[in-house]
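Students often ask what a 'structure token' actually looks like in practice. Rather than answer in the abstract, let us consider GH26 domain-containing protein, a protein of 481 residues. Its sequence is given first.
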Amino acid sequence: MQCTASTSAPARSPRRPSRRSRLARVAASATVACAALAAVAPVHAQVRGEPNDGQVMLGFWFDSADPYHDTPSIINEKLGVNVPVFQMAQSIPLPPYNYTTGAGGPAPENQIERSATDAHVFLTVYPNNGFDAITDDDFTALGKQILDYQQNLNRTVFLRYAPEMQGLWMEYGQQPVAFNQSWHNMYYLVKAVAPETIMVWAPNTPQGYPYGQTGTAYTSLSAADQALLDTNQNGVLDAGDDPFGPYYPGDDVVDWIGLSVYYKGIPSDTENTRQPEGYCSQIIRGINPESGVAIEPWYVPYCEQKPDKACMFAEMGAAYHTSDTTGISQAQLQQNWLTDCVFSETMYDTFPRIKLYMQFEYEKDETANDGSIDHRDFRVTNTTEVVASMRADISSIGTRFTWAQSRAPPTSISSAGAPAATNSAGQSIIQAITATTRPRPTTFPSLFGSTSDGTQRAEWAELGILVASGVLGAWAVMRTL
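Now compare that with the structural description of the same chain:
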């Protein structure tokens, strides 16, 4: 029911009726109902990082690894807009960067910097070695890295820590006691260093919970974990248990609330089939789109009823099964997904607390329900037809989306909305972008631009030696011809 108040004066009746019409009585009842709803409905304050009322953000994951070499700049060029949020990932404890393989080190924020926009950093941090491997110093180092993004690069930073914590596909999964302890420790240590960090709690979709993690997978857990997970207290872990509550660390230590939402096919998760209408809407309202059976709702308890929280689809996408050549095309599958779940004004109006949609722009192998390895392509920017459709949708929706602003490399810290040319240590912007907690290279060639003056002199000297050697070698060869 939509409640509105008219500001125009009512038309004057030529005579007073003896009693109210049925329509008038209904209108009066509706007014009372609206007043009652207004009295109990939470009033949402604007949360840090949230766009203006009525607007949403479209964010992207990007795969910078070989052989994709995807970047924010490439995505922006394809879409014709400046995407406002980009996702990056790293582990904690942070492994050292390997200059040979490119593995380890902090997430590649320099790719966002090179887009020449003020896009937000969406940093996912995975405790891939388990919670016990993380020390307080690791969280403090993470806070310093984020503070560097915020102060030296003037970036808004979302931190999504230990996502999809309900699943055993994560090394740290299905450990509610340890998760909650680690979350609180992370929250206070990171916030002590970088208080403006936006903390994102983001579980997996309730579809299929408990994801086959029953039997010994459940009974082998500690008594404390079992007690937390068995929310309906029937002695087993089953679909009747709450997939969210045992892992929610509390309103006082969460800023935004996310959810992983994917379409992988109905009825088969290895075939390319048309997505049911209202697929995403059903999931977050508490209906399994495949069976129609009730599942735990997400939107009302975690978005609508939490006045100081904003919500997001932290991961989202539709899987195109590359091995299936008989189903619908990738363009059809991705367009269905975008129309139903992303470029839908019905979604925006029905679920106004969802303020960010993060597209999973990857392809990967996953284990299907039948145990086979299925190659799935979630990307929407690698198909010309889909990109053209997205550009048209973006244009038609107009001001419902908010986009990043362009900004040139700054010349002064006082430049509004831009990072400083140098930080307090006198480092160049290239250093601040790329170094974070990585060690610097000390020999030629430098992978990350400017280093210290001494290292630069050494690199130029080595470059001169290489050039001179090349010239001399060429001259020697020419003499023999």
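One point worth highlighting: Residues 444-481 form one domain. Ask yourself how you might have guessed this from the sequence alone, and why that guess would often be unreliable.
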